[in-house]
């Protein structure tokens, strides 16, 4: 039954990758036959109908609990049958809308009670894994004596499945398809010679296991073999030569391939090489090419790509799917020569091997077509085996080839699978600079994905790569390749630690003073990767590398300048490093890089370094001398997002100086910032809102923001799913609300604006909560209408729930929000009833003076309620009264100029 469903039913894609039965006449016929089968089974073979399924059938049903009466028990979870299996599990369990059935008898009874039987059958078959469970049911019935009932019905469904279905897996191939196959190998159908009505040639008992047909293949360059078509794919068998073959002949002897093409390419190198040539002859006739596939498992892919693709997808994050190159390379004209050379490489002596590798170097091995051809013909495995010999000439020749073919991502993964890394690492110990350089460069190519980098570390490769670095004076190339390999390996955090423990930092610092540009690029690239770790930043500073990094900003090499600026971007997180950058005239050199606006990677690195350096006011002053601020504003148009993120962040630091806010506004910076609020890049939105909030403290800038409807745009970012964007937008709203005109009325016109604030008070991010509390404090300050609206939306209990926090920043703004919300009606009593008073007393013991300022105002407002006074006294507020008095006086001096009274304290 499971096989019949897969072969004959017509399926359409559904949600979440599932499939549903299409509303076609074929499916309606199939559903009717299944319904008839279930109903007849209960009456004609009651004992078989009571057989318990290996796994239950489960689906969503339209039946309700009241539809089941006699013979069922009602519980809180639903309705279950009194009949149980050997493990004490109910054979039927109904928990609307879900139902679970374990016998045909109960299944038939459910269908009898249903108003729409076919709908129930359809729902049952569309459930995930239902076809597999149908197969389990058939197995169970086969074991039941005496008449092999399930086999009988299996043949019934198989023979009644229509062969006109487009989803049928075995079809008559077109003439063009046979021309392609027979030009590359001999292929014929294995016995039996007749077909069942469903298109299958396998015996019924093998069809039950998903097998459909068998073929015999005679490649031109390998021994003949027999293969099996199945629902899972194509695989080799022991040799099915007759219809009544022994069961052992059907046994699988290879991995399962997605399609016949993949199996043939694996078994026959001649077929793999000539396939490209034959497919070109048939280009434009996709229907003929499709016969190579057993079935179309990925409808989104073209037929031609199905032919050319391998069937070994990788599971690691950084790995790409196997693909064949889309190239116009004239590979067929060279393939026989390449095939012969690989044969000589396999069978020749040392001299022949060296000469053969020299001939291989004549091919353009940087082209992916040739790289994959070397692998498919078995050349890659031979080259890796040569690395384990002691013949230096052969090893060097093999490394020269591997260095080129390993540029392909597919070859990199193949080398790791073949344990090529374990063969390369020991070569680093051989005291031959040329050999060390070749081995290190090959490792640099291979270590482009996580598994390869991990293998290098586990093989002891990090220590061996560090050792060639001190010999830069003797051999620049060996040291350069060693640094190149370390650069690739340093993308892993554990490898960074391994490099540090191996003593790589001082050695990299020594190489940083080299005069060779090709040496400096991988060295600085390694430092750039490692500078994300704080320990590395400290080591880079203590080893005196900052001076060299700044010096390299003036080198006449864009790539070197880019990596130097990127390293400074990461290192400038520390204040002491920024001081050194200022001392070595880094701001002047970075300002000069802004003139290279056409080089986007360099521009992104330079603006990033300017951003981090501008965290120190001394650097900002120096940047202003070179008119960097105006240049940054000009760069806010038509730049990639990686540049804009850095430019906007740098403007935010420049705007900390009041005079610069006016310059940004006069240069058109506010308009450009507001336009960026409609983007989707989260890092950019965080920086834009932060910079806009700083600029909003200037009244002229605020007028521009009001004119451009900036309040609404910033408020809309509170809906962004990123907590960082939500918090940054909320902080930006505070100065906009404080300095804008008629902001209170504008906020009330925002549809769903206040409800959004209430929703965000349920966030689990403390930064979001603190910023939202700050916004609430701003919109409720002297604005009773806003307090009333927020109270109606339930702001009081939500604020009270947050009072147990230990985060001082949240405490400060939470207390301020509570203080202003107390201005309305019965909110003081409501806060007391919600348990907000007692936790607030503990805020006064904080070491943060800003927390004291807002807390005492909140306590003052709460103390106007008698019940709150009792709570305050019970929580020993009198013992902290001197601190409260001092804070109240301080608050009044800072804000109102009037002394707040202690109320009833």
UniProtKB/TrEMBL annotation:
Residues 13-23 have a biased composition (Polar residues). PROSITE patterns: ARM_REPEAT. It comes from Neogobius melanostomus. This is Armadillo repeat containing 4. Residues 1-23, 306-330 are annotated as: Disordered. SMART domains: ARM (SM00185). Coiled coil: none annotated. ARM repeats lie at residues 419-461, 460-504, 752-794.
């Amino acid at each position: 039954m499971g096989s019949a469903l897969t072969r004959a039913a017509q399926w359409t894609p559904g949600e979440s990758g599932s499939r549903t039965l299409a509303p076609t006449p074929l499916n309606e016929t199939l559903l009717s036959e299944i319904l008839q089968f279930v109903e007849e089974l209960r009456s004609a073979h009651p004992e078989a109908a009571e057989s318990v399924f290996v796994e239950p059938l489960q689906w969503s049903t339209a039946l309700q609990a009241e539809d089941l009466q006699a013979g069922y028990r009602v519980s809180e979870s639903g309705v279950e049958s009194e009949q149980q299996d050997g493990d004490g599990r109910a054979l039927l369990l109904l928990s609307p809308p879900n139902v679970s059935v374990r016998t045909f008898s109960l299944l038939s009874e459910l269908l009898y009670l249903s108003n729409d039987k076919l709908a129930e059958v359809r729902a049952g078959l569309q459930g995930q894994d239902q076809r597999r469970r149908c197969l389990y049911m058939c197995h169970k019935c086969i074991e039941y004596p005496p008449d092999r009932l399930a086999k009988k019905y299996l043949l019934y469904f198989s023979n009644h499945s229509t062969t006109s279905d487009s989803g049928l897996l075995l079809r008559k191939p077109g003439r063009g398809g046979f021309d392609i196959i027979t030009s590359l190998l001999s292929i014929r159908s294995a016995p039996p010679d007749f077909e069942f009505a469903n298109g299958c040639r396998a015996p019924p008992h093998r069809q039950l296991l998903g097998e459909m047909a068998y073929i015999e293949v005679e490649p031109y360059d390998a021994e003949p073999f027999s293969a099996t078509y199945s629902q899972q794919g194509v695989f080799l068998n022991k040799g099915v030569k007759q219809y009544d073959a022994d069961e052992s002949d059907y046994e699988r002897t290879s991995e399962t391939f997605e399609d016949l093409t993949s199996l043939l390419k694996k078994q026959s190198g001649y077929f793999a090489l000539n396939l490209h040539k034959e497919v070109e002859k048939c280009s434009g006739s996709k229907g003929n090419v499709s016969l190579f596939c057993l079935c179309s498992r990925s409808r989104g892919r073209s037929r031609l790509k199905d032919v050319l693709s391998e069937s070994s997808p990788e599971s690691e994050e950084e790995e790409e799917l196997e693909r064949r190159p889309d190239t116009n390379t004239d590979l067929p004209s060279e393939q026989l020569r390449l095939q012969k050379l690989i044969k000589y490489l396999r069978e020749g002596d040392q001299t022949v091997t060296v000469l053969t590798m020299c001939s291989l170097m004549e091919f353009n091995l940087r082209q992916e077509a040739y790289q994959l051809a070397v692998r498919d013909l078995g050349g890659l495995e031979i080259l890796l085996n040569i690395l384990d010999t002691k013949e230096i000439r052969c090893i060097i020749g093999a490394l020269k080839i591997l260095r080129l073919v390993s540029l392909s991502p597919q070859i990199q993964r193949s080398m790791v699978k073949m344990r090529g890394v374990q063969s390369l690492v020991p070569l680093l110990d051989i005291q031959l600079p040329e050999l060390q350089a070749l081995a290190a460069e090959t490792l640099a190519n291979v270590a482009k994905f996580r598994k390869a980098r991990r293998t290098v570390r586990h093989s002891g490769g990090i220590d061996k790569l560090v050792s060639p670095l001190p010999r830069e004076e003797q051999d620049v190339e060996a040291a350069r390749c060693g640094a190149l390999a370390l650069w690739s390996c340093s993308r892993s955090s554990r490898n960074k630690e391994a490099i540090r423990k191996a003593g790589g930092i001082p050695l990299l610092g020594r190489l940083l003073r080299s005069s060779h540009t090709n040496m400096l690029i991988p060295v600085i690239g390694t430092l750039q990767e490692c500078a994300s770790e704080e320990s590395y930043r400290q080591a880079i500073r203590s080893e005196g590398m900052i001076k060299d990094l700044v010096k390299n900003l003036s080198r006449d090499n864009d790539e070197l300048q880019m990596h130097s600026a990127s390293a400074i971007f990461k290192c400038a997180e520390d204040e002491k490093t920024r001081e050194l950058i200022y001392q070595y005239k880094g701001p002047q050199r970075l300002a000069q890089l802004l003139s290279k606006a056409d080089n986007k990677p360099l521009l992104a690195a330079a603006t990033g370094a300017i951003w981090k350096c501008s965290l120190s006011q001394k650097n900002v002053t120096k940047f202003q001398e070179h008119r960097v601020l105006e240049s940054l504003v000009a760069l806010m148009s038509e730049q990639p997002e990686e540049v804009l993120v850095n430019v906007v962040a740098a403007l935010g630091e420049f705007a900390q100086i009041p005079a610069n806010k006016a310059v940004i506004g006069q240069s058109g910076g506010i308009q450009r910032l507001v336009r960026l609020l409609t983007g989707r890049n989260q890092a950019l939105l965080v920086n834009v809102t932060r910079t806009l909030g700083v600029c909003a403290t200037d009244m002229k800038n605020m007028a521009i923001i009001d004119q451009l409807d900036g309040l609404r745009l910033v408020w809309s970012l509170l809906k962004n799913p990123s907590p960082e964007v939500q918090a940054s937008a909320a902080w930006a709203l505070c100065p906009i609300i404080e300095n804008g005109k008629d902001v209170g009325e504008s906020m009330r016109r925002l549809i769903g604006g206040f409800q959004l604030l209430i929703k965000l008070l349920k966030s689990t991010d403390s930064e979001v909560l603190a910023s939202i509390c700050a916004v609430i404090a701003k919109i409720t300050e002297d604005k009773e209408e806003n307090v009333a609206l927020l109270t109606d939306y339930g702001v009081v209990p939500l604020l009270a729930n947050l009072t147990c926090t230990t985060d001082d920043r949240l405490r400060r703004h939470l207390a301020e929000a509570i203080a202003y919300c107390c201005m309305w009606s019965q909110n003081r009593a409501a806060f007391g009833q919600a348990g907000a008073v007692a936790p607030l007393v503990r805020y006064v013991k904080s070491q943060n003076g800003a927390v004291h300022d807002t807390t005492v105002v909140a306590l003052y407002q709460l103390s106007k309620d008698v019940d709150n006074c009792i709570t305050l006294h019970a929580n020993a507020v009198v013992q902290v009264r001197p601190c409260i008095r001092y804070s109240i006086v301080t608050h009044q001096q800072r804000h109102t100029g009037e002394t707040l009274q202690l109320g009833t304290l």
